[in-house]
Amino acid sequence: xxxxxxxxxxxxxxxxxxxxxxxxxxxxxxxxxxxxxxxxxxxxxxxxxxxxxxxxxxxxxxxxxxxxxxxxxxxxxxxxxxxxxxxxxxxxxxxxxxxxxxxxxxxxxxxxxxxxxxxxxxxxxxxxxxxxxxxxxxxxxxxxxxxxxxxxxxxxxxxxxxxxxxxxxxxx
Length: 172
Known about the structure:
By secondary structure, this protein is α/β, with parallel strands linked by helices. Helices cover about 35% and strands about 25% of the residues. The protein has helices at about 1-5, 10-15, 20-35, 55-60, 70-80, 120-130, 150-155; strands at about 45, 65-70, 85-90, 105-110, 130-140, 165-170. Strands 3-2-1-4-5-6 form a 6-stranded mixed β-sheet. Helix 4 (about 55-60) links the parallel strand 1 (about 45) and strand 2.
């Protein structure tokens, strides 16, 4: 799966510069910030951080962010964008997060979970495991019931899609 995303960094960022991409970014960012309520000094894990499009919003709020990503080129791009800010990069599979239980105040994941062909429940369980008791987990996923949702698999092989995530906020 990483090899698919390894080809995306430039195209992914360029898509967010298109008119629809800017609109989606604005809408999704506002929704993410409203739901996650990142605070100064909070430790936040961004699972499937990609090129750091939404990581930037968390950092701007003063949070310390660990970007977790399967694709090294995507992760490197996120690191370049976050240069000089409290951003830590970790590469790996979201079904096996290499962090101690309760390591983060909040865990977020935007449009990543739907790319797991199987075993998505273990990825969600991992997000809950690494989030401290009383913390918050926010997962935004592509809406598979939308007209474009059925096309996700075909589009995921060629580049980023314009599908909007549907968030789930779960306090723990």
